[in-house]
Amino acid sequence: MAVFTVAVKYLQGRFVASALTAFSVALGVSLIIASFLLTRGIKEGFIEGTTDYSLIVGAKGSPTQLVLNVVFRMDVPTPNILSTTYEQLQDDARVEVAVPVALGDAYEGFRYVATTAAYFAAFPWRRKTFAMSTGRLFHDAPLEPPTYEAVLGAEAARRTGLRVGDQFYEGEEMAAYLLTVVGILRPTQSADDRAIFFSLASFWGMNEVARQMEVKPLTAVLIRPKRMSDLPSLHREFNVAAETQAVFPSAVLLTIFNLLSLAEEVLAMILGIVAIVVLLYLFVSMYSATLERKREIATMRALGARRVTILGIVLLESCAITAIGGIVGLLGGHGAAYLGAHVLAARGGLVTQPFLVSALQPVVFGSVILLGTLAGLLPAVLAYRTEVAENLAPLS
Amino acid sequence: MRQFRTIFAVSLCMACVHPGLLASAEEPPRLTFTQLVDSIKAELEVTQKIKSYGGKEVEIQGFIIPAGPPDLSFFLLSRVSAMGNYCCEAPAGQDETVYVFAAKGVNILYDPLRVYKVRGVFEAGMQTDKTYGVSLFRLRHAQVEEAVGAKIFKVGEPTAPASNQ
């Protein structure tokens, strides 16, 4: 095909300029793809990593802090509530399951989560399942002396290198309270992978303040009601109380998503401008190329090439540049998103791996080619209208 | 499509039977929480009238309580907002709570203080869901929109009680 051959020759003829243009298209596309995949990955990470429990009761304060700390182990723990709150909830006729948690210190940055065996229990309504990779769960008998047995989340075990049977502590004053690893959990794709679990009795035994307390402290209680319709009344009861608050974790996440969507809008605007800049660059490059080639085009026309053929050659050239840029950009964008997710995950963020094949990739690729062709349209028309006689005049 | 047309035709018939329940003939019938509460007699038995809406598309306006996952594939729709302080009203019970299911989730800017307009296929009567337990009223295949505020009475205009019937 003559048109194709000439287009390829044109690309080869201006190899550096064409490669640079394709590279800038690739950069633009990868930026768009990577930021889109990453924001979605972060959102999905929060959705997948959230708790199955509908309500969280904790100390008065910020609902966001309570949820971020208890569910995602991100912020600092909220102040304590009394374990009597847990006992009261367990006896409540509206409550099906109540799970106490106490958060505090950490080992090498992996948070200690003190809880009961109920935390890991499988219920028909639970999406999340816990399974032991090796070892067993810690002994959990509230009235017996603390066992100081610990169960590690998959990520915590991998990163600290602790194995079943190992003993550890952090902080000199804790040397008297050695924790022994008795089990390691399978990955759950949630913040629990980065936690170190042990019993409440062990937590209270290690904690100097708690040792002296008559009524022991807790950070929060996770609640599953017998009837969902009882949630508002439970929610109200703990919110009007002076010491506690009750929070719907999904409500907090949705509020965070609202904030995220603001940032997403700003990002979309910036990406839109990036796309325009890349298109302008492509346009300028194609335009100057066509100006440079006026003489060649006139020669081709004089040799019998039709105007439509010339139009086709220029369009094909700009289309080829954007196609190459688009493919490299798609690959690069996925690569960047993968690296970004990796870095975020290493820092304790929850990100799902953003490799979802969806409408995104074909839509971006299609629109890149379309816009690229559009950017080539004006130079192509310029080439189309090149007058043979004027441009074949001798170069003085 | 045909099913939709049938639902549409049935709602048109409903419009003739209960003209007061409808905003306009094209809209699905709107149920209020008062109607839901009134429909419940002793032993939580749902009356025939509200049951007659079963399987049909209706619209209910209320506050969203995100009791399910954060993609809002399940949530509670209630007469009372689940704000922390409950300044005005005591929370609703089962008779004032509609369990809303939206298989693909709902994409809205969630605001606990806003009233949302939820449309879906109505179901009344006790039923147990594996994940979300026992419920009395349900909306399935739900779609959510932000509701516009109530009618504003201008100065001098008689403030007639909201005509629901």
Folded structure, characterized:
The complex is a heterodimer of chains A (396) and B (165). Chain A has 396 residues and is of the alpha+beta class. Chain A folds into 2 domains: 183 residues, no CATH class; 193 residues, no CATH class. In chain A, strands 1, 3, 4, 5, 6, 7, 8, 9, 11 and 12 form a 10-stranded mixed sheet that branches. In chain A, 42% of the residues are buried. Chain B has one domain: OB fold (Dihydrolipoamide Acetyltransferase, E2P) (Beta Barrel). Helix content of chain B is 16%, strand content 30%. Chain B contains 3 helices and 6 strands, in the order αβααβββββ. In chain B, strands 2-3-4-6-5 form a 5-stranded mixed β-barrel. The longest helix of chain B has 16 residues. Chain B is globular. About 11% of the residues of chain B have low confidence. At the A-B interface, α8 and α9 of A face β3 and β6 of B.
Question: Outline of this structure?
Answer:
The complex is a heterodimer of chains A (396) and B (165). Chain A is an alpha+beta fold and 396 residues long.
Percent in helix of chain A: 40-55%
State the fourth-level CATH superfamily of chain B: Protein of unknown function (DUF3299)
Terminus-to-terminus distance of chain B: 32 Å
Provide the domain count of chain A: 2
Main β-sheet of chain A: number of strands, strand sense, barrel status? 10 strands, mixed
Given as residue ranges, the uncertain stretches of chain A (5+ residues, pLDDT < 50) are none
Q: Radius of gyration of chain B, rounded?
A: 16 Å
Look at the structure and give the mean pLDDT of chain B.
75
CATH class of chain B: Mainly Beta
Helicity of chain B, in percent? 10-25%
Strand order of the biggest β-sheet of chain B: 2-3-4-6-5
CATH architecture of chain B, please?
Answer: Beta Barrel
CATH topology call of chain B: OB fold (Dihydrolipoamide Acetyltransferase, E2P)
The number of helical segments of chain A is: 13
Strand content of chain A: 5-15%
Seen as an oligomer or otherwise, the chain set is: heterodimer
Mean pLDDT across the residues of chain A is 87
Please tally the β strands of chain B and state the result. Answer: 6
The tally of beta strands of chain A, per DSSP, is: 12
